[in-house]
Amino acid sequence: MSLTNILFDINNIDFDFSAFAAGTWHTNCLKKSTRNFAMAEGEKRVLIIDPDPKERRDLTQHLKNENYYIETGKNLSEAIKKISEGCFDCLVIDIDLPEMRGYEAVPILKNLDSKLKVIMTTKKNTKRLEAKVREQDIFFYFIKSFGKDELKLAIRNAFNP
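Request: output the structure for the sequence above.
Response:
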């Protein structure tokens, strides 16, 4: 693509940058051409990353009446791809990812979007694990045996200023 074509494309973009200037858009919302779609005003976007398909399905089902836009994935690679291509407000991510521990992935994901609210989940908790998780920039730490209502409340709170 020539410089002329790039300049033409930039000049023909019909986009209201006032939301971006006001700081209401995430930094990653404008990085890629996939942002050409217009997000609904106030749309609440949640990304669920869990290697267990049953956990992903159950949580998605549990949140269906909350009016969230929900996407899911099974590993860190999918999380990176989806966060890079989408504009998510909240990430629910399991500790036991195939590539690495979820808490080790937080700095990578926060580098993609510093405003992303991260909710870390686990089936089993230990004091050592909880200490490692809480060292990261997370919004909430959820132990799955506590029931999904607490997680639903944490996700709801992630959208409150």
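Strands lie at 45-49, 69-73, 90-94, 117-122, 140-143.
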